[in-house]
Amino acid sequence: MELIATLTDGITLQIVIALLIAGGCIGVLAGIFGVGGGAISVPVFFETFRAMGVTDDVAMPLAVGTSLAMIIPTSILSARTHARKGTVDMGIVKAWILPVLLGVALGSVIARYASPVIFQAVFVLVAGTNAVKLLFGTAGWKLGDTMPGRAGTSAYGAVVGLLSALMGIGGGAISNLILTLNGKDVREAVSTSAAVGVIIAIPGTVGYILAGWGQAGLPPDAVGFVSVLALVLTLPTALLTTRAGVALAHVMPQKLLGRLFGIFLLLVSLRFLAEIFL
C-alpha cells in the first residue's frame, strides 16, 4: 500500500479523468491523421506532470518520452489498419528505416541536455508550417511531383526522425508535410505516415528511457523519461478509438481531412507559442 501511495502521489481525480479523455482523443487522431497522437499527448502530459509538482526542465522531456511510448501501440494499430486498405507506400517506408533511426538516435541524445524551450520551439515550427500549408496552401505548394532521389529521400527520413524525437510524435505532422509537398495525396500521406510512426516510436522510447535514467526530479513511477502511470491511464481508451479514427479517414473528403488536420496543428502551435512567450 505504501508503494502504491508513493507512485500515485500528486495524482488527483481531475488528472485521471483528463488522461482517460486524452487517451481517447489520441486514438482518434492516430487513425484520422496517421499520427501517433503526440501532438495532443505532449501538451496534456506536460500539464499533468506540472500539476504533479514536476519542474519544467523535467516535465517537458518526460512528456515527450511518455508520448513516444504511447505512440508504439497506437501507431502499430493505425499502420496495420491503413495497410489493409492498400494506401501505405512501402517503398518510402523501407527507404526511410535507416535514416529515421539515425535521426531518432540523435534526437534522444539531444533530449538529455536541451532546454524545454528547444522542444517547444521545434514543435511550433514544424506543426505551424504544416498548418499554414494545409489551411492556406494551393496546388502550387509543391517541391515536386515525386519524391527526390535516394540521397534526398534519405535526408528527409533523417529530418523526420530527428524532429519527431524532439517533438515526441510519431512523425505524422512532419512526414505528412514532406510527402504532400512531393506529390502524395493527403490520404496516402496519412497512411504512409502511420507506418513511419512505428519506426520512430520504438527506438525513440528506448532512447528517452536511457536519456532520463538517473535524472533528478523524476516522479516515482518514471522509467527514465517515460511515465508508467500516464501510459496505464491513457492506453486503454486510445486503443479503443484508433480503429474509429481510421474508418473516418477513409470516408472523409480529402480536402476536409487536410483542413481539419491544419486547424488541429494550428491550435497546438499557438498553445506552445504561448508557453514560450508568456
TrEMBL record:
Keywords: Cell membrane, Membrane, Transmembrane, Transmembrane helix. The lineage of its organism: Bacteria, Pseudomonadati, Pseudomonadota, Alphaproteobacteria, Rhodobacterales. One of its GO terms (cellular component) is plasma membrane. Belongs to the 4-toluene sulfonate uptake permease (TSUP) (TC 2.A.102) family. It is found in: Cell membrane; Membrane. This is Probable membrane transporter protein. InterPro entries: TM_pro_TauE-like. The keyword S-adenosyl-L-methionine does not apply. It is a multi-pass membrane protein. Pfam families: TauE. Its main location: membrane. PANTHER family: MEMBRANE TRANSPORTER PROTEIN HI_0806-RELATED (PTHR43483). The chain crosses the membrane at residues 15-46, 58-79, 91-110, 117-136, 156-178, 190-210, 222-244, 256-274.
